[in-house]
Design a protein that fits this description.
Length: 450
Amino acid sequence: MAGARGEFSSRFGFVMAAAGSAVGLGNIWGFPTQAASNGGAAFLLVYLVLAFGLAYPALMAELIIGRHAHANAARALGGLSPNRLLSGLGRGTGIIGLVVASLILSFYAIVAGWMIAFCLAAIAELLGLDAVADWLTGFGLARNLVFMLLFMALTIGIISEGVREGIERWSARLMPSLLFTLVVLAIYVLTLDGALEGLKVYLLPDFSAALTPGLIIAALGAAFFSLSLGVGTMLIYGSYVSDKENLPVLGGLVTLVDIGIAVLAGFLVLPAMYVALHNGVEIFAANGALLSEDTLIFTVLPELFATMGLPGMVVSVVFFFLMSIAALTSSISMLEVPVAYAIEEHGLSRRKGVVLIGGAIAAISTVILLDFGQLFGLVITVTTRYAQPLLGIVLCLYAGWVLNRNSLLMELQRGHPGAEHGLFWKIWPWYVRVVCPAVILAIFAQSVLG
């Protein structure tokens, strides 16, 4: 069944695809700025602990359910229980997940389009095409629509080629490019005046903030959402994993790559912010807090690059190219969630399903752009603040309580004979039953109640 649906051909291909799904714009700009606002290295330490204590077990829940069923999220969750009520709830959860993934992609494509536009604007400046650069960096419906559609076309083109030739092939190309670009940029920025101050903020912990509720909740949220959990992206990728693979090891590798890139991004973004401050670009608001993430990326850093002359233009091209890659590696996993459902439940060919669903998501993005002030923030809030945590809880409960314990052990033994004697089997089943749902619920409650 897996072979007919498509399957990752290698461990490297899967890790690059799954890590690419997890590594997105939030890792590159969100994590570093959260760290800067929450005690620097204190936030980093708490984040690392919680990433392995919460995000990794939740990731394993999705991977195990996905490979166990070798099916889309709705069929996978619906098939875990012979009980009609639980089966229906599972299918409903899978369908809601694919709707949420589609909505996330609808606003993500808009932001990703801005990244491509800013990358091209830097190239236009290098060529002396200032009028073109101004149009590319100006906020307007035409600019936003053109680059949203361009980004969706890239995503559709990759997904239409299938699991091996599309997702795996391009992830194996894009992720090493992302990592190389990130390292080169970080090394360069660290040589600039002011970078050391940013490095101190990032690496010297403010332990007085380490155990504050706000920091812990922020770190929990960052750890959970950085691995793209809750909407079925990791479940569908898990369904394409060979039965011969050791799932706990695969999940650990994905977690390490994702967290490593987020941490590495801190060595780029925080020093760059303080280089900007050194060059006279303001990075703090009137109340002393850091400017918002979008302001830092689309205003502060471009202003920094402008103060650096020709080298700054080159760095700007590379930086926004990096951001575009990060966006693309995430978008292909989001589109695959509803596409897999359309193929398996409604018999559509892959190309037809990709075009229809990708076109529908682009239409939703267009509607958002037409009423940007009202809809953009609303869609982000509904999907990431409310839907993702609730879906994450249900996935953990299904892995821990609904999936038969013997079936669970047999799934782990497929790629790891003797799994019943390992530390993972001794800890994970009860941990994902009790600890993960409780902690994710705490994040959700804090997010809603403040």
